[in-house]
Structure formats: C-alpha cells, structure tokens
Amino acid sequence: MEEFIGAWTARHGKSRDRLLPLLHAIQEEAGYVDDAIVPAIAQALNLSRADVHGVITFYHDFRRAAPGRHVVKLCRAESCQARGGAAIEEAAARRLGVPMGETRVDGQLSLEPVYCLGLCAIGPNALVDGRPVARVDAAALERIAAEVAA
Amino acid sequence: MSDDIEVMSTTGRLIYMAHQIALNLATMGEEGAVTALTDHLTSFWDPRMKEQIIAIARDEPDRLSPLVAAAVARMAQGRAAPHPDEDQFNSVNEVGHCDAG
Amino acid sequence: MTFARETDHGTPPALSTGKTVTLTIDGQSVTLPEGTSIMRAASLTGGSIPKLCATDSLESFGSCRLCLVEVEGRAGYPASCTTPVADGMVVRTQTDRLKQLRRGVMELYISDHPLDCLTCAANGDCELQDQAGAVGLRDVRYGYDGATNMGQLKDQSNPYFDFDPSKCIVCSRCVRACEEVQGTFALTIEGKGFDSKVSASQDDSFLGSECVSCGACVQACPTASLIEKKVVETGTPDRAVVTTCAYCGVGCTFRAEMRGEELVRMVPWKEGKANRGHSCVKGRFAWGYARHRDRILNPMIRASVSEPWREVSWGEAIAHTASEFRRIQAKYGTRSIGGITSSRCTNEETFLVQKLIRQGFGNNNVDTCARVCHSPTGYGLSKTFGTSAGTQDFDSVMKADVILVIGANPTDGHPVFASRMKKRLRQGAKLIVIDPRRTDLVKSPHVQAEHHLPLRPGTNVAMLTALAHVVVTEKLYDEAFIRARCDWDEFQDWADFVSEPARSPEAIEPLTGVRADEVRAAARLYATGGNGAIYYGLGVTEHSQGSSTVMAIANLAMATGNVGREGVGVNPLRGQNNVQGACDMGSFPHEFSGYRHVSDDATRGLFERAWGVRLDPEPGLRIPNMLDAATDGRFKGIFIQGEDILQSDPNTHHVAAGLAAMECVVVQDLFLNETANYAHIFLPGSTFLEKDGTFTNAERRIQMVRKVMAPLNGYADWEIVQLVANAMGLNWTYDHPSQIMDEIAALTPTFAGVNYDRLEAEGSLQWPANEAAPAGTPTMHIDGFVRGKGKFVVTGYVPTDEKTGPRFPLLLTTGRILSQYNVGAQTRRTGNTAWHPEDRLEIHPSDAENRGLKDGDWVTLRSRAGETTLRALITERVAPGVVYTTFHHPETQANVITTDFSDWATNCPEYKVTAVQVSASNGPSEWQQDYAAQARNSRRIAPLEAAE
C-alpha cells in the first residue's frame, strides 16, 4: 500500500488538501482504508495520524475494515422510512444473515446504511454492489439474496 | 589519525591547545596570528598555565611551532614586570580582612 | 497572591491594524481595535457573555452556540466570538430571548453530562458548572434515560493527567490547543454527531499517541474531562504564585497553584512574555523531584570517598568547609582552590558564588557549565557584535520570513519556543535546517523545511563559509547595511576569503556530504527571502571550531543585513534556565559580571572598592584546566554548586581522575549526584520553589523566581553560600536576594536599571536596562553594534583532529530529548521516565545491518576514550556513518565515550564529534559495572549514632 500511496502522490501531489482524494483512491484500490495504513498516509501528506483519523471517521463512506465480497446498502432517509424502510431493514438483516452496519462472518456480504439515493418516490431503495434497486420488498429481497450468494 | 591519539598528559594538552589556537588564527597572517595568540594566552590562560608554557618554550623549544614560540615569548615579555605574588591576594592567614557587605 | 483564575476574554486580541471602531454594548459606548470580537469587547468593558468553546488562547471557533447576542439591524442571533465589532454597531448581550436560547443550549449539554459536581475533581474550577449557573439552568427536560456518552472508560495512561470522555462536551478546545498552541496535531474529533469523541491519534491512549504532554489541552479543557492527576488527588488550589521555570533557557513563567504548602499544579502564566501562556512536559508537570525521597536534606561530611557519609549539623558542615579550604590554601597556595557556579541557580546565587571565589578564595578560579555549552557564543558574539547574548526576543520569530536553524533541535530542547516557531512556519515563513540528523523540524506534521542540509558532524564552518561564498559571489549581500554598520575594509577581507573557489559549495561537497545546489538554494533563500533569523544551539558550539562557527554565523547575518530589527538576528538557544544569567554574573574565570575582563583596572577597582579586597588581575582556570591542574597535584579543592560535572562533562575518566586527586570536593546539590561520589562535603541544596531570586533566559529577560514553600533543607542556596563566606571571614549581611541584585546593579552597567521593585511592577526586564535603555532592550544593536562597528572575522575551517578510521569508523553525536533534561537529575525522578526510560543509540539501518544488529539489541559503543553499552534504536533520522545518543542516564554515561578535544578558543568540549565503533554486546561494560559498584559504595550514609 505504501507503494500505491507513493505513486499516487507522485501523480497528484502531496499537499495536505490531497487527503480526501487520496483516501478515495485508497478505498477504490483496497476496498477500505485500513487503520494500519494511516501512518503512511499521514507521513505522505505531512499530516498527523490524528488528522487523518479524524477525517476517515467523520465520513461514513470511508470504511476502516474490508467489506464483504458484495455490498448491500439500504436507504434510511426519511422518504424510504415513510415507505416501510424500517421493516425492510429488519427483514433484510434476517434474510441476509448480517446485522445492519456489519459484514457477515463468512465475508460474503456487508449490509450498510445509506442516506438518500435520490429515488424517494419509488422507495424503499437499495444499492446492490453499486446498482440501484427500487421498491424493495420481500420478493426483491429474495432476488438480492440470490444475487449476493454467488 | 584518531586511532593513534592517546589521552594526553597535561603538558601535552597545553601544547596541543596552544597549537590549536594558533592554527585557528592562521588566516590572519603571521604577524596578525602572533598578536592574536599573544592576546589570547594573556587574556584566557591562568598564571600557572602561562608559566608552564613559558617553561616549555625555555626547556623544550622543539615542542612549539615558531608561531607559538613567538607568541609565548611576547606574552612572557608582557609579564616582564614581576607579576604579583599570588599570596598578595587575600593571604590565607589573613581571613576577615574585608569589610564588604 | 491569593487564588483567582486568570481573566479569559474569550478570543485573542485583534491583529493590530492601527484602526479602531466605536460601538455600543448594552448601552455603553466603547472604542476598540478593529477586528476585536464582540465577545472580547464585552469582556474588556466589564461584561461577560456566557461561553464554552471560546478561550482567549485560541482562535474563535463558534461551535458551542452559548455566546449568542443580538445586534440591532441584523437578523438572528450571531455568535459573539466569531462576530467582529463594527462602527456604530449596537449590541445587546443580555435579553430575555438570549437567556432562553442560552438556557436551551446549556440544557442540551447537561443532558449528556454527569451530575456528579460535588465529587468531581473540577468542582469549583469548571467552566461548564459556572456557565450552567450563569444561564440559570434549573432543570433538564429530556431526562437521562436516552443514549448518553456517560460511563465511558477513562484514559489514565499519561503520568500526569487523565482523560474522561464522559465529561467531555466536545468543544474542541483541546484539539485546537494541540494544533494552534502546541503545533503537534495529536488530537482530533473522531466520528460525527452524537458519536463525536476526542481521540488521541487513532483512538490510541494518550501515552501511546503523538501527544507530547505539553499540557495545553488540559489547560484549555473547560470541564474535568482533561484534568491533572494531582488535582484529582489533592483538590483544587487555594492560592497562586507566579514564578519562573527552572528547566531550559526559554524561561517560561508559571502560576504555581498551591493548596497550603503543597504544590497542586504549575499552570503557564498567560502574561509571561517568554512563553505567552504555553508550557512543555517538563515545566508543566515534571516538578515532582522537589519532594522526591532521594533528596538529601541534611549536610554530610566524610574524610575520604571510600567512607560512608556522616550527617552533621549545618554549623559543623559550614565550619568544616571553610577550614578545609583555608587549610588547602595554606598548604598549596591561594590558587589551589576554585569553584563552579550553577546555571540552575538564580542570578543572585551565581553572583555570590563567584564573589565567594574572587573575594574569599582570592583568585579567579571560577567557571560554570556554560563552559560546556555556550562559551563559544560568548567568545564569538563578543568578538563580532560586542556582547555575549542573543540579539532578539522570542516574539521576534513571528516577524521572521526565513528561519535558519543550525545545530539545534528546539522541539526537544526548547519546546515552548519551538511551538512559536512552528506557528510562524504554518503562517508561511520558510525554514532551512542545518543538522546531521533529520530532526522533527525537518519534517513533522504541518512543518517541512524548505532545505535540510544534513552535513557531516564537524563541518559547520565549511558549510557556513560556503553559504557566505554564495552570498558574496552572487552579490546577495546588503551593501548599504555593511557600509553603515560594519567596517568595510574588514568586510572586503572577509569577502575575498569566502569568495575563493576552494570555499564554494561545490568544493566542500565532499567534506560536508551535502549537495552543492541545495547549499546554493539555501543561501539564496536566506539572503533574499525577507527577514532572515538564525537560531542555533549546541550543535554549533560543541565542536573544536565552536567559536569559529559562531563568528561565521554572525558574519552571515551582518553580510545580509539581518541584525538590528525585529524578525532577524542571531539567536543562541540557551540550554539551562539561567545559563545566560550565570554568564552575565561573572561566572567565567576571565571576567567580572557584565563581561568585563579581570585585567581591566577600572572594573577591578570598582569591585575592589565595593568588596574591600585586592582582586587577582590574572584570569583563573577553566573547568577542564582545573581538572588538569588537579591531576598535576596543583589544584586541591573545589566548591561545586548545582552541577554534575562527572556526568555532564566530557571524558568521564579524566573528570573522575581530576576529582579523585583533590583533597576537598564540596558538592551543593539536591541529590547525591554522580560528582558527589567523589565529594568530601555535601551541602543539600534548595529547589527553585524554595527561594526568591531571578533567572535570565535566552532572550536576556530577567524574571522573578518566587518562593512558594519553605526550603526542605533549611536554607535557600544563597543563604548557604553566605554561611560559607562568613565562615571564611567575609562578613556578608544579605537578608534578601533583592539586596544582592542591588549590588549587581551597582557594579554592572548593563544591569544598572534592574531592581526587584521594577521586576515586580513590570514582570520582566531585558538587559541592557540602564540609563541608555530605561525600558530594557528587546532587540539589540538597533542603532549600531555594541562594539561600534560590526566586525567581520575571517573564519578558516580547521578540521577536528577527531577523525574516523578503521578502528572507529562511525561519528557519534550527542543531544537530548523532550522529556528528559540534561543529566536527568530532576526528570529521571519524575513521571517523565514514561517516555524515555533509558538512553538509546540511534543508528542507521545500513550501519545496523552491517553489524548484524536488530532494533533494541544491546550494543557496545567504544571510542578511544572509553566504552559503554546501551540499546540500539534503528532509524533513518541519522545518516549512514553517524550515530546519536542522549546523556540523560548515569547508567549509560555517554560521556565515557566523548573525548577531551574542545573548542580552540573556549575549551567548550567537542561533544558533537567522537569517532566510535559499535558492536553487538551482551551487557554492561566493565566500566559500567565498576562504576555502579563504586557509586553504590560511595552513596552509603552511616546510620545516625545515638547521642551520647
């Protein structure tokens, strides 16, 4: 990972304002930003470890642990909640075998919250490996379960 | 090489010091360096160090470079007036003679 | 002084623009500098707006929403801390609507805060408590059943303070203090919203984080979330006394906050002009040594060092001291004894010790530990500028554009000043570091040197001359300044010398190991980047060319016109709290106070008339010469106040042999230090908390030291010196140190305007303070150099005779570390050992690999002077071929290794260059084992015999 950071900063610069783009690049590359790589990020941009840790933990989008092979995000924003999102969230956790916000023990999938995908009229909505799924109901859950089983 | 330098005797150190000062003053040219070295020895060396180096110049002249020897000679000359007998100052049997407070 | 918290105006003063504005606050018309916040304006006019996230040591933040005010004609309720005053503004700070809003905000805070005020350590000293009272909160409607942040585990890892997240209101004051004041950036707010939490580094323990324990966060915390362990243990203070820290030459002033005779905490004093309200781990926290059980409180004597110590009365100890010195002088002559003044003691005490020697011993055999640190500064700056002192005050750094740091590691050695410097660097000043090691200033969070010139130890003069070569040959010098302020002919001689091709960056590259283009770029930056300020330390002075290097620095500053105004100058960073003062007070064997040579008849006459004795016109012995004379059998007795020469001075074997050859070694110290192993008389010393006096810091600032508790040993150090003097027949009659200062002022032109009344009234004075400079002198040489014309001195590069070779292929350089201080006598007896429990040898990975060494391995470090063992720390901070260690621990005795090579002009030891070899080892060397056994034997104290 140090090599990746070195190559990235060589291309994109190492001023302190490069932190967010670098974190995105690392997450893209590795799937998450490991706590263990924070000192190298701090070193590369001449920040403190605290600086980097503060930013990573502030943004929910940055993961600090490896996600499952598949990532299912369920919308928790007001519109989806109004359209039965809370019940679907419960059902999804049961059907997929993983509590909200966690990764299944076998590493097959992560279930994560997301706050509004901009599809409010057709919620509750989900994002399955980056692909939007609208009007999530029991049947849709089955299809999602099958999809992420692969 | 440092490997060969052993811990010096005190006389050896005195000679070393004089030459080290001389070397660092060498950029001033010969006359300038002799003057500056004389001044340095006069201003910073205690009477016994001065006497010691004068004795070395007298008894073992080969151990001093010409520049150092010249400065020592000049320094000795400056001391030609009989320097105060050290016991003149607060002689040891004369305690309590001061009235400072 | 009774206990009152320092006033907090909420936001810092506005940056001066010279303009003022007039507004109305609560019906009162006020005129204030432009840029002042409404909060500060209200506070300055006697009002008080409730606040939590604001404090005047930090920039305003506007997060707590408690300080809302109403401004006529503006919608809403702006935060007073972030809203600047404006002409004609009408502000109301107390209205019913504001009360309601503030109470609502406070209610939310308290809904997630424990209500254990009565048993809380901050009870009575808590801003949250005060503000809840101020806004009249009587009830929390939300109850306490919901999710809260209470009940979290405390972090008690730091030896001096606890962090309790349950009591945290996430105001970010600690995070901002760490960033803005200290500049370490060790803290952050982790997460967001309800989950927000203060985190040290990556949710580490404070001890395991990047935190350097400066205490700024604890000071900034408005609750008990960050609080001193000592307050938890003792309770809140009931009085405060302002005094000056006894650690380094920065000279921080502190409020010693007391409960009765017990010191509860040291809090940096916001009015302190040296530290401006900041502190470091040593001054803030590491004062526990004052009451350490190792402290010796009774005088002791013994006939020989192989005997155990015998406790005696003060009367017997003093009489014995006087009679031994007189006996030795009767037998061996007046010049057979001498003494060493202490840079840890006050000006008044130092003055008395040199007076005892000149007046009572009748010779000039007095020296001080500046011999081994900044004596070349004295020599070099006297020659070039005309006086032995730094040219600036610390505030000056805030106006520097280019900062050149040579042979100094301020983040470890002078941390509070380093924080100021880092603040200036974050504002955009450029930094050049000349140092063999990659120090923290070279690169640490938010600070990065423009140029690091990692030269080989011992090549400073060559490097500085190369910088001068570029300045002269590229015509970057300030001709107008030089013509007006210096001797033009001397400048031309110097310019010719440095311009020779042999002194170019290209020519010296093989010597220094630094790329020529980097040297050229650094020279151009210093010469053309605006205000250029040089700061240097012992990496300059502790070489065989120390004095030449100081003069080379002075040359460079004069050539570029960087002397005589704010933001520039030549600034030695002084090591010890009062090393400047000790030098000022006449601690050197060749000069009286105020740097006047003993051979000067007029000066000597002045002292002779005041002291009623004839004084010796010949210079006395320097410390190393005293030791030489001792081994020659001609120097037999020494009085050493507050200095541990066995551990601190070079070539321990030589020091030990010199001490062992003496008939009477008197040590006055807090502890049985290493030197005391060779002592015959031990006089227990007092700490800085136990006496009145003054210290002078690196900016020539004379500051008061105030007694906060009675001396445990019975006497302040100045009283002990007076007892010895009177036992020798001198009839001194000082009742208070102020009388000593009056004598100093009467005899020393640069101190003529200094007295305790003025120091009390003005807080501090920077010498020269006299008729010519009634208000003291923050910046020197403004209208001309002290010596008249500034003198360019040609500084030839004479390499040290200490060279690497097959037997000793590596260069050892020594230094110190933030948490420990000098020989460690104080800091090793505090919680600071949590950070630096032992001295380690820093070695480059390639050198370690060649020797088959792993990190943490025991290694033997050997030079031609001696050998010792310690553990290796493998790091790229040192270059290949260079190793580094500290000298804080007597178990290591790093100075067994250092040699007796020294500066040509002043005999300042060459600590920074020793040729060594490093090899794997199994354990302590023979010397270490012998020494440990001897030390144990020598420290025995005989049990008191029953009275007959």
Automatic annotation (TrEMBL), chain A:
Binds 1 [2Fe-2S] cluster. The keyword Iron applies. Pfam families: 2Fe-2S_thioredx. GO terms for molecular function: 2 iron, 2 sulfur cluster binding; metal ion binding; oxidoreductase activity. Keywords: 2Fe-2S, Iron, Iron-sulfur, Metal-binding. Its cofactor is [2Fe-2S] cluster. It comes from the Bacteria. It catalyses: a quinone + NADH + 5 H(+)(in) = a quinol + NAD(+) + 4 H(+)(out). InterPro entries: NADP_DH_HndA-like, NuoE-like, NuoE_N, Thioredoxin-like_sf. The keyword Lyase does not apply. This is ATP synthase subunit E.
UniProtKB/TrEMBL annotation, chain C:
GO terms for biological process: formate metabolic process; respiratory electron transport chain. This is Formate dehydrogenase subunit alpha. It comes from the Bacteria. CDD domains: fer2, MopB_CT_Fdh-Nap-like, MopB_Formate-Dh-H. Keywords: 2Fe-2S, 4Fe-4S, Iron, Iron-sulfur, Metal-binding, Oxidoreductase, Repeat. Residues 159-190, 202-231 form the 4Fe-4S ferredoxin-type domain. The keyword Iron-sulfur applies. The keyword Zinc does not apply. GO terms for molecular function: 2 iron, 2 sulfur cluster binding; 4 iron, 4 sulfur cluster binding; formate dehydrogenase (NAD+) activity; metal ion binding; molybdopterin cofactor binding; NADH dehydrogenase activity. Residues 97-136 form the 4Fe-4S His(Cys)3-ligated-type domain. Residues 238-294 form the 4Fe-4S Mo/W bis-MGD-type domain. In the C-terminal section; belongs to the prokaryotic molybdopterin-containing oxidoreductase family. GO terms for cellular component: membrane; oxidoreductase complex. Residues 19-97 form the 2Fe-2S ferredoxin-type domain.
